[in-house]
Amino acid sequence: MIRPTQIKIHNYLLLSDVELNLGQGVYFVTGDNRDEQNQGSNGAGKSLFCSAFVWALFEDILRKDVSRDDIIGEFDDFTEVKLTFDVDGQEVVVRRVRNHPKEGNNVFLSVDGEDRTHATSKRETTKLIEEKLGLSKDVLYYCAYSDSDRKPLVALTSTELNKVVSEILNTARYDKWIKEVRSRRRGLESERRSDMKLLQARDEMIASAKKDIQNYKNQLETFEEEKAEKIEQLESDISDKRDERDEFTELLKKKPGVEKELKELEGEVGGLEDKSTAVKRLSRERDTQKKRRTSKQNKLAKIEAAMQSSKENLDNLTTNPTGECDVCGNLLGDSKKLEAKVDQHQKKVDAYQAKKVDVEVDISTLDSKISDLSDRIEELEAEVEAGRDKLTRYTKLENKLDKFVRAEKFVKNCDKRLSALMSRVERTEKKTPANIQASLTDKRASLSEAHGVRDDLKDSIEQAGTDIDACDALEGAMKKTKAARFNSFILNLQENINVCLDAMTDGDYHCQLREDGSELSLVFTNVSKKGKYFPYGIFSKGEKARVSKAAATALNNMMDLGFIIDDEAVDGVDDAGIQRVLEFVLEQNEGKTLIFVGHQKAMSDYFHGHTNLHVIKENGESIIHENKNFRGQFQETA
User: Fold this and answer.
1) Rounded Cα gap, residues 548 and 153, in angstroms
2) Of 23, 49, 134, 606, which has the highest C-beta tally within 10 A?
3) Which residues pair with 511 in a beta bridge?
4) Is residue 81 part of a domain?
5) pLDDT for 390-432, tens place per residue?
6) What gap in Å lies between CA 182 and CA 471, rounded to an integer?
7) Last residue of a domain, one of 353, 370, 386
8) Do 539 and 531 form a contact (C-beta atoms < 8 A)?
9) Within a 13 Å sphere around the CA of 493, how many CA atoms are in the beta-carbon half?
10) Which domain CATH number covers 91?
């Protein structure tokens, strides 16, 4: 059982310093807000005291729009809450701090004085606290901590209820295990596929090795016969290659005569080539001179035409002394002008005559050069033509000489090939079955090894199949176990709720599980409903209080918790209802630590004689006074 034995609070919102030793029994929390007289007990800090438990355990502030640093009060720079629990005889201490000068924002856990705090993670320490107490934040709210604003267990939707039960049972561990099993199965499948590929490759290797072994056996049986055939074939190749070499060697015997004749013709053929070159050069020069002569002839024709025109003009002037032009009939003027014109035309005729003579001389010179070049070309062509046969013979001899060079290379290649063939004959003659036998032995050893590897792969594949089947079976078993635990717990929850409802209402109310798709929800009925079951939301406040307290008590007992914190969860319930609810809670939770917050007179009357924790707020600070044997007096006591 889990039961709080002490709480220490420092600078938590309005609470400056609180230290209370808690034991079995009832603690009734009342308040007095002296800073605001019209508020009565509201705002004194009663709920803050209760929320300190939750903040220390789970860092939950229980209020909307409140940041984590908002819980730091005005009496110091940091906040600290320390809770001490008795968990089945072990002392478990949870201490949480905010903005501590040395410890920062952290939470600490110790069990019987041994530090169990996670070395690096506050989140992981909180998980360790949940594991040690067997209690999560949500589960705490549904069975050990309640207030008027918080949804009770019976008000949860089917999805929310199934989530809470899963959290209580920690079915996530089953999901984790199932995930690990599936991961292992995938790994086994991958290994099996890999081994099957290796097995296929090994089978192919074995088939190839068997084929090689048969080939080696065949070679051993026909070794001598094949050896003789091989030597015979090599000797035949040697004979053919020698014949080819001898044929070209015979051809090479003509090489000296060809070289001698070629040398004799070399001088003459060289001169013919020079003359042939000279013919080409002289022909180009003759063509150039012919082009120059044509140019000169064209120039001479132009000079003669111009000179003829000047002569006609001169004759026209000398044959018409009257000065009248025969062509146009114009008068030439006086005799002086006529003489000037005659003199002008006579000079032109003389100039053209001089140019004509120069050009005619140039043409004559060019004709002489062209004639000389033609004679020389004709002479050289005759000489080249006379030696044409020798040049043709020389070319043929050069081609023969090239063939002799290729023949020499072929002979050398034949010698190399003959040497290689003779070496092969020698190696073949020396070859014995021992080499094949050694290869056969090695191949048989490889085959034996391959068989061993194949057998191992088959065993591995078979084992993987067995393990995969085991994974499937294990996954199925875990799913069944998870479902069985879930169903068993929720059926027990229904049964325990009905036991509590019977105790509280004398059998007037009853709880039943309703299937909602694949999930379950809680529905209720009472004698007035004539056997019809309805969800929690349709009931009145008094009915809701009874049903929710019955469910919370049932779950609290199933969780084996030794404490309940009730922060005005019966607010709005009439006095008779409060009386019956409180009687039931105390009867069902005897021996636990029960903390109640309320301001109704019915609650005050009911808790007469129990311990009162009176919270007084004054000057912005809330202080808790512990009063034994409470008698309805809310005033501060010494």
Assistant:
1) 7
2) 49
3) 524
4) yes
5) 777 777 877 887 888 888 888 889 889 889 988 988 888 887 8
6) 7
7) 386
8) no
9) 28
10) 3.40.50.300
